[in-house]
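Protein modeling request. Please complete all fields; requests missing the sequence field cannot be processed.
Requester role: graduate student
Desired output: 3D structure, token encoding
Chains: 1
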Amino acid sequence: MTSIEWYNTANVDEQKLGVKKRQLLIGSLFFLTSFFLAQSVVFEAAVPFSVPFWAIIRTKYKEYAKYVLFGGLIGCFFLGFGQVFILALQIVMYECIMRFRYWQLPQSIAVSLAVLLVQIMWQGVMHQGLPPVLVQFYVGCEAALALIMTLFMQVLFVNSYEWFTSHWTYEKLGSGLVVFAAMLTGMQAVVISYFSLPIFLLQLLICFGALVGSVPLATVIGAVLGTLIGIAKLSFTGMLSVATLTGLCAGMGARVGRFGVAIGSILPSVFFLFYDATLPLDSVYFTSIAIGSIAFLSIPKKYSDKVRDKLFPQREEVLLARQSWLTEHVTFKLEHFQHFVQFMKELVFERFMTAPIEEAKEVSPMNTCLSCFRYDHCWGAQNNGMDKLMTDWFHMKGVGKDSGMHRVEEQIRYKCVKSTKIFEELETELYRERINGQYFHGKKMIALQLRDMSNHLNQLIAEMKEETISFASVEKDITQRLKDAHIECFQLDVLSNKPGARKIVCALAPARVDWEEDTTLAERMILPILYDIFEEPFEIEKVVASDIPFRHIQVSFRSAISFEVEYDIYSMSKDATLYSGDSHALFQLHPGLFAILLSDGMGQSKEAQHESRKLIHLMRECLNYNMNPETAMHTLHYVMSLKQQNDMYATLDFALVDLQHGDLWSWKAGGMSTYILRGKEVLKVESNAAPVGFLSISAVEAEKRKLKAGDVILMHSDGLFSSVDDWDEQEETFLAYAQQVASTTKTIQEKLTTIMESFQSYYDIEDDCTVLMLEVTHVVPTWAVFRPVQHSMSNS
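Delivered output (796 residues):
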């Protein structure tokens, strides 16, 4: 075992030990609470608190039910064996009522009814008939108090996660005081020498309340506890005044500090000692409040601060934390934007400053043809094809074919008597067109770049102003929808709200029944809710079970893709050399967007390979900086045109596959046709735009096609088809083989290999050749009930 594995194992064991310790501590607290509630006697006859506590814990903290059961039975044992039997019968009666499938009662009614029925039967048996009126009164009081106590405990004992995530309301605080008062009445017998546990706890709680909430909270605690204890014992109602005044004086002393609270809490007891001799203010009482004051002074400050933040959250601290987070977030965005600007500077301006610019030649103001005596013979009614020769010259000069250029120039020299001047004017005109094209595309590129930069800046400003509100609003909407569906999600975080790449984390309570899995709720209910809100599919990324700080599961959701792409690549160089002018790249921009790049450099040399690879690399850089594809295409065209090699350029076939909505976006700069095979149908995506670096390019327009599951996409370079054979025949043959093989059940690698072998058996590939084959299929979740099977399609 390595040191890292040993450390991870030790860390896991330590966490498990911590979880067990925490569970044992909570179980012990529930045991003591149940023990003292079982001994709490109201009106000196009714014992109404054990069954409500069992009902609440059995419902919300099932793993601690055994501690409550044992604590309640042991506590009742000190009141008599009969009370143990009564409590057991009441618990059994409650379980029977709750499990009755034809009549579902509220929990508070079920508890009250269980207490009432068992007491009626028990008292009827004990008195051998109708019990006395006083006994009936006590039975009714016990049932009523059980109902009221159940309601209070429902408010107090919320789900485990809400103890850490929700603020304490006044209703919850009042419920806690009622339950604590019931516990204090059950502790009356816990007196050790001069120490009384209930008086000690009462003093400690009043002082702590004064430190946390000053006069209002301390007074409320004293008044509520004093009233409830006095009513329960039917005596010592004068202690109400003592407890209330103690809370008032302790709260007033909170301005001085802890010692002011401790001294202020003792002064009312000293006053009533001399004022009312009937109160039980003896040595046990004063010893207990003195010990309580000392214990209060020893409580660490961090605990009081935590309780204060829970009861009275400091909004200023929350705003400061939010402001700090916002500052860090904006700083990160600004840094990313600066990197983008720096990239644009290096890509365009520095290259432009270092690129040489040729001087323009002198242009003769005289039109050679207009001043020539053979003008009518060449351009008039006796046109001998000079216009076609001029057009062919511009075309051959643009594509850079030396053999074709030499042939056209020879034809012009044969027909023109002033061929030298004609060639000079043609060169001048071509140069003028290139300069105009460069000027036009330079302006368009800068405009597009400014648009993208403006979008970046607008997005940044919008995030600064609205992102926190937007995320909070989205989280609030999702939380409300889950609440309406009665789904207990105590914490929800939207990590990313970008369409197609959303990430959401929900913290849920674990499964409560044996047949239910932790992912059942997420799959059956939460996924449809998220789809309804965002109108896009989601999937469960992972599920993590955790016991810290309480037992729960974290379910991570992310945007699901509807389609997936399998692809294969066939690439070969001319004469099997090391250098190929073709370059390609297939990659994911994010899980819902797949990018395809195919470039063909001019020729088969090392320079052609470098040109195409450089074009692919620059395009990937532009996409990584979130540049708009149209802007990227024009920018690369402009940059590539400023190189020193005047006759070097490269084609670029760029496509994006939207895996969420099934769309294909295609941009072509000199690229060949893209074929989409859909059964017997063939869809072609074409473009007339010139290669990147050729300045006569006018525009690069995007073509959009809708994809379906089972579609096959084929992209290729011009080396696939020979220049010797008929182009249309080669294309038809290639597509026929592709359609025939695409419908088989072979893997995509086998399909592409079979297509190329069959095609090469009829036609020779004489140039660098690259063929990309992509197959689009539906994504089927692993938990789906069925999975579609594609059958081969017959040719009939």
